[in-house]
Specification:
Helix content is 37%, strand content 18%. The protein has 314 residues and is α/β, with parallel strands linked by helices. Helix 2 crosses helix 3. 36% of the residues are buried.
């Protein structure tokens, strides 16, 4: 499951609580100054101007002051293969090792299960400086430029007549047993096409240290308990790549109705850390070919930026 899929959303309407408290504090402060007389108000204004002058200097321009300069500190799930694991066998581990090498820094991990509160307990507590995989546009982090565009896929046995299916409206699926993770975008498409009666559901929110619905889905497909598996592309691609029987992975890029099934994947850093974001953007740009090579090793489906076709990789 992508990192962004497990994190609970923040307040949709912003943060009125802290803003309201700040406004009340300013109003009270002004009232007290007025009560103390105009001379005291002017003195306070001079002090405030001096303080603002300090804040506008070089220290304010450097927003990445929480980022470690002695190590490349990565926030990661210890049991989320093919993304990451404690043995550092996932593709995000490989990309992290590449970046640490390019920066000339040792690689350090802060391990935390990918679940509600992940960002708060990792980046938020300054225990690490980057999440290696996060969907573009997610408000809990500041996104770098994307390094991967992928989509949900349908995985079938290569010897199955379903191996040619590339859209969820295909009549061939009417009699198929279809595995999908509850609450993910493909479920909405299945419902629209009247296929929910044939769905074998797998849990979305689990402790990845003890359970892997995606791996179980692929095992059920190999064993013939289901006929097709709908998975996030990087997961489905990697698990199919490692499967014991030949499996076909087809990105679902022909669906035109919402919800969309493709996403651009970035790295995530703390809000406001623009200097660190730009440094990571530079690393992504200069090492994209090596990133693509790592992703290809894991069978990750890579699409063009618009999610409409497979990426043209030299």
């Amino acid at each position: 499951m992508p990192a962004w899929a497990a994190e609970a959303p923040g307040h949709a309407g912003g943060t009125p609580g802290p803003a309201g408290r700040a406004a009340r504090m300013r109003a009270g402060h002004i009232a007290r100054l007025r009560a103390a007389g105009i001379a005291r108000l002017r003195a306070g204004g001079v002090a405030l101007a001096a303080l603002l002058g300090l804040c506008a200097g070089p220290l304010a321009a450097q927003t990445s002051d929480l980022t470690s300069e002695s190590a490349f500190r990565v926030c990661a799930d210890p049991a989320a293969y093919p993304f990451s694991d404690r043995e550092e066998t996932g593709y995000e581990n490989r990309i992290a090792a590449l970046f640490a090498e390019k920066l000339g820094l040792p690689l350090e991990y802060y391990w935390f299960p990918m679940a509600t509160g992940f960002i708060r307990k990792t980046l938020g507590e300054d225990r690490c400086d980057v999440v290696m995989g996060y969907a573009q546009g997610h408000e809990l982090v500041l996104n770098t430029n994307h390094y991967l565009t992928s989509a949900y896929v349908i995985v079938t046995r290569t010897d199955s007549p379903l191996s040619a299916v590339d859209t969820l409206s295909d009549p061939a699926l009417k009699s198929a047993r279809i595995g999908t993770v509850a609450g993910t975008p493909p479920a909405s498409h299945l419902a629209r096409n009247g296929l929910m009666g044939q769905v074998e559901g797998y849990q979305l929110m689990v402790d990845s240290r003890h359970d892997s619905p995606s791996a179980q889905m692929i095992a059920d497909l190999e064993a013939g308990r289901i006929d097709a598996a709908l998975l996030w592309g990087p997961i489905g691609g990697a698990l199919a790549h490692d499967a014991q029987v030949p499996l076909t992975v087809t990105p679902l890029i022909k669906e035109t109705l919402p919800p969309r099934l493709f996403y651009r994947i970035t790295m995530g850093v703390r809000q406001g850390e623009m200097v660190w974001k730009r440094e990571l953007n530079s690393l992504i740009r200069r090492n994209q070919a090596q990133i693509d090579a790592i992703l290809a090793e894991y069978g990750v489906p890579m699409l063009n930026d618009n999610g409409t076709a497979l990426k043209d990789i030299p």
